[in-house]
């Protein structure tokens, strides 16, 4: 008579649990496939509907579109770095603040989500215009004589995009910091490490998973931004999403718009993979 081992007995319930969880998540998986995967596949098929790779080759090699894609990557990278520099101190403060501080901080982070991106962008146009609130205040205080060019340039676009995407960087880092046992830092300081050394060698390495997740999320979202750069850039700051919209709305060239979207999707996935690899390598290499 064959006797089952304890390991096999434990494996049986585990596999049943996995199957049950898969069945519970199956409706959501099918919904995501229907709403996201199928449209993406149709988009990719549209880019080669003539049976050739002409549209994809044009999208990937034309100097104009390559330059705009490179500029979009630079802008997304700048937004990611600025959000990281601003978000990490905020997330660290939230983990050490009292209940009132955490409540106020979360309220400030969640408040922008209650207003659409379009309304927030128009608000920044009111604030940053030549006769906007900021320039009028600076003139009234005697700090400037001529209005500062805060709108229709890269600076204005960065301000608006960082404002929208900052919470997406704060929350992953905050979640990673919450999982770190505070006793680890206390133990490091008790063994003679300074507060900065304890943060650099204990807290920072353990929070790199949240940093990587936040960087990937912010970069991917920034790369596909349309409303904010279109309004705050005033046509002087062009991103790849704006060219895709132009191909669809003005030129009615759906195949080429699909080809540009396919190139953007490929670049986004490649950069996402690089960010994840760098984040993983940094976590492993940090002492």
From TrEMBL:
<keyword id="KW-1133">Transmembrane helix</keyword>
<feature type="transmembrane region" description="Helical">
    <location>
        <begin position="252"/>
        <end position="275"/>
    </location>
</feature>
<protein>
    <submittedName>
        <fullName>ABC transporter permease</fullName>
    </submittedName>
</protein>
<keyword id="KW-0472">Membrane</keyword>
<dbReference type="GO" id="GO:0005886">
    <property type="term" value="C:plasma membrane"/>
</dbReference>
<feature type="transmembrane region" description="Helical">
    <location>
        <begin position="21"/>
        <end position="44"/>
    </location>
</feature>
<feature type="transmembrane region" description="Helical">
    <location>
        <begin position="100"/>
        <end position="123"/>
    </location>
</feature>
<feature type="transmembrane region" description="Helical">
    <location>
        <begin position="157"/>
        <end position="177"/>
    </location>
</feature>
<dbReference type="Pfam" id="PF00528">
    <property type="entry name" value="BPD_transp_1"/>
</dbReference>
<feature type="transmembrane region" description="Helical">
    <location>
        <begin position="202"/>
        <end position="232"/>
    </location>
</feature>
<dbReference type="GO" id="GO:0055085">
    <property type="term" value="P:transmembrane transport"/>
</dbReference>
<keyword id="KW-0812">Transmembrane</keyword>
<comment type="similarity">
    <text>Belongs to the binding-protein-dependent transport system permease family. CysTW subfamily.</text>
</comment>
<feature type="transmembrane region" description="Helical">
    <location>
        <begin position="64"/>
        <end position="88"/>
    </location>
</feature>
<dbReference type="InterPro" id="IPR000515">
    <property type="entry name" value="MetI-like"/>
</dbReference>
<keyword id="KW-0813">Transport</keyword>
<dbReference type="InterPro" id="IPR035906">
    <property type="entry name" value="MetI-like_sf"/>
</dbReference>
<feature type="domain" description="ABC transmembrane type-1">
    <location>
        <begin position="69"/>
        <end position="275"/>
    </location>
</feature>
<keyword id="KW-1003">Cell membrane</keyword>
């Amino acid at each position: 008579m064959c006797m089952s081992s304890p390991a096999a007995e434990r494996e049986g319930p585990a596999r049943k649990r996995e199957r049950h969880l898969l069945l519970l998540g199956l409706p959501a998986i099918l919904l995501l496939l229907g709403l996201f995967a199928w449209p993406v596949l149709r988009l990719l098929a549209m880019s080669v509907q003539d049976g050739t790779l002409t549209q994809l080759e044009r999208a990937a090699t034309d100097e104009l579109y390559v330059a705009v894609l490179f500029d979009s990557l630079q802008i997304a990278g700048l937004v990611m770095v600025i959000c990281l520099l601003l978000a990490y101190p905020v997330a660290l403060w939230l983990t050490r603040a009292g209940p009132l501080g955490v409540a106020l901080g979360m309220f400030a982070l969640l408040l922008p989500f209650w207003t659409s991106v379009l309304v927030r962008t128009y608000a920044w146009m009111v604030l940053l215009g030549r006769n906007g609130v900021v320039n009028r205040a600076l003139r009234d205080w005697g700090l400037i004589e001529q209005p500062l060019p805060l709108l229709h340039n890269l600076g204005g676009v960065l301000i608006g995009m960082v404002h929208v995407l900052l919470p997406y960087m704060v929350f992953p880092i905050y979640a990673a910091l919450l999982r770190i046992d505070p006793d680890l830092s206390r133990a490091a300081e008790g063994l003679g490490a300074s507060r900065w050394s304890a943060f650099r060698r204990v807290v920072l390495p353990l929070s790199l998973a949240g940093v990587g997740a936040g960087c990937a999320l912010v970069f991917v979202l920034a790369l596909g931004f349309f409303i904010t750069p279109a309004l705050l850039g005033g046509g002087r700051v062009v991103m790849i999403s704006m060219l895709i919209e132009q191909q669809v709305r003005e030129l009615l060239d759906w195949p080429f718009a699909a080809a540009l979207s396919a190139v953007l999707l490929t670049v986004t996935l490649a950069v996402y993979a690089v960010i994840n690899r760098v984040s993983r390598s940094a976590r492993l290499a940090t002492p």
